[in-house]
Write a structure and sequence with these properties.
globular; Rossmann fold; binds 5-amino-5-deoxy-1-O-phosphono-D-mannitol; alpha/beta; 18 helices; 7-stranded antiparallel sheet; 27 strands
């Protein structure tokens, strides 16, 4: 959740540390800080809030060291104040940390009993004092870190520098990603390769349990048992992925508008549009024999998985078990022998998803992951990787990653259906045709944003908003509500339309807008009945539908007219209006669209 960087440079590193942190701000933006070694002494600057506050501070109080570490924080332990901002330090050692030290209370109590004084409420400070304690006992920096790591429980990525050591940085990884960058006479450390892209494209990813001793001349890597290991250096493509907002006001707007293109790319990767067939990579499992698919993910990625449950069960006639990863990881779910488990994650670093993946792997499942970051931990720990070709998604609210995840999952459903013979070649051609036409329809839909802006003006006055849908439109209702609440801070809930009368209908009055996602499919009449129940109680209905006016018998506050598409592809298309409604409502509300409060793009803590 936090972003960490480190540089062993030839010149002062403060500017480059801030530059790298800017690329990591998607991981957290509660506070930021850097520390460098200057004439043998550790010096730091920290600031509450976004990185620009730290930058301002550095203008009046610059740092000159050639060795330094930096951090952008998403608060887990302690309020997002300057006092709790990283780096944390004593006179001897300075540390930046991403993750959670689970046993920090015990460590802190022990160290305080031994005379250490803590300055913050963070778990990280226990690491600083633990290393300091080992240094006071006469150990060298490397030996002190080696000893301290033995005591740490939890998930962490650490960057550590020392007073009096201008050519030394130590990195450690357990459960949180960490990449080492190789320069010419310079070395770098970052939570991901994108942070290091302006400096180097030669990257070594630390494996679980690894720690590294870095000098300007290179890095020595040790595994969790302290054995020296070789980890490959790879050429990163991150530098080609650096992005800006183009002509858009926000990354989210740009990413919504990129969808026709990135969905096309993603579909083209899994389909032969000429023959009308799905061309799915080998998953290392006989799809014709599987009798259950397990899907797990978090947030928006989970809703993509929920759509896939409907698709796979209908098209391939295979039962799908799906659960949010934060629940599935602890419920010791029984899994079928030789089953297929699918994990969906934009970042590929979500802690709960990764933990569930490991549980399923340990229980004999074949692991396929749908990720947007191919070098991510989830990708690296999977048997098969099914990339989404969405390109970097910077806005915290997931948009293009979601529809690209749906694109891959749609192809997976067709691939399983074909392998099992539940659909024939003609049906496959029909499904593929529907998907092929989608980017064109999406492009048409986003050409005119005026109707969404008008709806946003009204929604911005609401305290609560409900979203309703049936079948595959139910997960889209859930996703629409998530999108609205995360960036506009308006309370929103998604419900299966048929569930309304079992409780939520009590909320309906003339002040509650109800957004109904209702393509004219087999379930349309049922959803319309539920809509009438809302209308009868004065609810303000905003309908997203391709149905003609004569099929809609009640008064609407607004109607987003959708183009007719194949029933199979409606979740992909109907996601777009929910994104635009959320986006424009947030703009009207004046919130921080790309970096909404309390959130982070990559959730590497549980
Ligand atoms: O990187 P992941 O796809 O694993 O992230 C999962 C969720 O944290 C993410 O989808 C989150 O719900 C989004 N902010 C929603 O827009």
């Amino acid at each position: 959740m936090c972003g960490i960087v480190g540089i062993l440079g030839k010149t002062p590193v403060a500017t480059n540390l801030v530059d790298a942190l800017r690329r990591l701000e998607y991981r957290g933006y509660d506070s930021a800080g850097i520390a460098t070694v200057e004439s043998g002494t550790l010096v730091r600057r920290r600031a509450e809030g976004k990185l620009r506050n730290l930058e301002k501070r550095l203008l009046t109080e610059p740092l000159e060291g050639h060795t330094g570490i930096g951090h952008t924080r998403w608060a887990t332990h302690g309020r997002p104040t300057e006092r709790n901002a990283h780096p944390h330090m004593t006179a001897e050692v300075s540390v930046v940390h991403n993750g959670i030290i689970e046993n920090f209370r015990e460590l802190r109590a022990d160290l305080e009993a031994k005379g250490h004084t803590f300055d913050s409420d963070t778990d990280t400070e226990a690491v600083v004092h633990l290393i300091t304690h080992e240094l006071h006992a006469g150990k060298s920096p490397v030996e002190a870190v080696r000893a301290a790591l033995q005591h740490l429980q939890g998930a962490f990525a650490l960057g550590i520098i020392f007073a009096g050591e201008d050519d030394l940085m130590i990195a450690a990884r357990q459960g949180s990603p960490l990449a080492i960058g190789h320069g010419t006479g310079e070395m770098y450390l970052g939570s991901d390769a994108i942070a290091l892209a302006p400096f180097t494209d030669v990257i070594t990813y630390l494996e679980e349990g690894d720690w590294a001793v870095m000098h300007r001349s290179g890095a020595e890597i040790f595994d969790k048992d302290g054995v020296r290991v070789d980890r490959p250096s790879v050429k990163s493509v991150a530098s080609s992925l650096l992005v800006d907002k183009g002509n858009h006001r926000h990354f989210m707007a740009k990413e919504i508008h990129e969808q026709p293109e990135v969905i096309s790319h993603t579909l083209a990767n899994y389909m032969d549009m000429v023959s009308g067939s799905v061309r799915f990579p080998e998953l290392g499992i006989d799809l014709s024999k599987i009798n259950r698919v397990t899907i797990s993910a978090c947030g928006t990625a989970y809703y993509a998985g929920l759509v896939a449950k409907y698709w796979i069960e209908k098209v391939a006639r295979v039962p799908v078990e799906i659960d949010v990863a934060s629940e599935m990881r602890y419920r010791e779910a029984p899994l079928p022998a030789d089953g297929l488990a699918v994990f969906v994650s934009q970042s590929g670093e979500t802690a709960d998803t990764l933990a569930t993946l490991r549980y399923c792997k340990a229980n004999g499942q074949r692991i396929a992951s749908i990720v947007n970051v191919r070098t991510s931990t989830i990708a690296r720990e999977s048997h098969a990787v099914l990339p989404t070709l969405a390109g970097p998604e910077i806005g915290v609210a997931s948009t293009k990653a979601f529809t690209c995840q749906l694109s891959v999952l749609a192809c997976l459903a067709i691939a399983i259906g074909r392998a099992r013979g539940s659909i024939n070649a003609a049906q496959e051609i029909e499904l593929v045709k529907g998907l092929t036409e989608l980017p064109r329809h999406i492009a048409g839909l986003i050409r005119n944003e005026q109707p969404f802006i008008a709806i946003a003006q009204e929604l911005s006055k609401a305290r609560d908003v409900l979203y309703l849908g049936r079948g595959t439109s139910y997960p889209i209702a859930l996703e629409g509500a998530l999108k609205l609440k995360e960036i506009s801070y308006i309370h929103a809930e998604g419900y299966a339309a048929g569930e309304l009368k079992h409780g939520p209908i009590a909320l309906i009055d003339e002040n509650v807008p109800v957004i109904v996602v209702a393509p004219e499919d087999d379930l349309f009449d049922k959803t319309i009945s539920n809509m009438q129940e809302v209308a009868a109680r004065g609810g303000q209905i905003i309908l997203i539908s391709d149905a003609p006016a004569e099929k809609i018998s009640c008064k609407l506050a607004a109607h987003i007219h959708m183009p007719k598409v194949s029933a199979f592809t409606t979740p992909l298309l109907y996601a777009i209006p929910t994104q635009l409604i959320a986006y424009h409502t947030a703009v009207v509300m004046g919130t921080d669209v790309d970096q909404p409060r309390n959130l982070a793009k990559s959730v590497t803590v549980e």
